[in-house]
Amino acid sequence: MLFTYIVCFSVECYLYKQVSQRVSSKTFRIFSKIINTNPLGFQYTTPMKKILMVCLGNICRSPLAEGILKSKVDTSKIEVRSAGTGGWHVGELPDPRSIEVAQQHGLDITDQRGKQFSTYDFEIYDHIFVMDTSNYRDVVKLATSPSEKEKVQLILDEIYPGEKRDVPDPYHGGDEGFEKVYQMLDAACEKIATRL
Please, what are the domains in the chain? Predict the structure, then answer.
């Protein structure tokens, strides 16, 4: 009897580690019932919702969007990351002007590093918010199914539904452009946070 419990518990721990972050809690519960485990009342958790913010280079707009949304949600339940459609700034800090405007609003985004969007991100993230129509086209063309395309949305559609408005790229502008971008993203992220 003791041997059976040890084997069942070992199997359950392995399944939890391998499966819990990849399938829904409902699927995992069904899996547990099939093998008739959980002799010690082992607890499983609901997988985190995962959000990805995407712009061109992942140094100006999407790092701000990541930082803003993180400040508005419970990060133990919702994961927020960002990426760029281009790979020029992989591994780099956000633009100093994005860092500065974030700091002016009490946010620290210096833990972020540039990442390039990949097709694998469709498997990882539940929602993909892009900053402009160019980003939208670049991301959607990498989708391999309708369900992947449905994950992609212009972030300003949150506050201007159906208007297809862009968050302007402030890279070649002055500091004022970064503040305007911050305000746009803050309003959009507020909407996102309320429905997550």
Answer: 2-35 (no CATH), 49-195 (3.40.50.2300)
